[in-house]
Amino acid sequence: MKKKIIGTIFAMILVSTLVSCLAVGTGGKKIEQQPTLGQELLDLKKAKDEGAISDQEYNEMKEKLKRTNKNQNMNFDKVD
Known about the structure:
Blueprint: H1 2-25, H2 37-49, H3 55-77
Helix pairs in contact: 2-3
């Protein structure tokens, strides 16, 4: 009985320590990852292949993604 209580207390301390380490490690901020152009293009192709969007919609959206990505990369090139 005594060993179960000690084990439970130890587990609770371990969990609380890990949780606090995780919170400190991220600075308490949410980290959002933006999908890469490649991932967005793969998702778009999957939607087309599954019939969720037409070929025309696929091509229009693909070009828009490429233009958007090109514009974003051009903005980085202009930084002094």
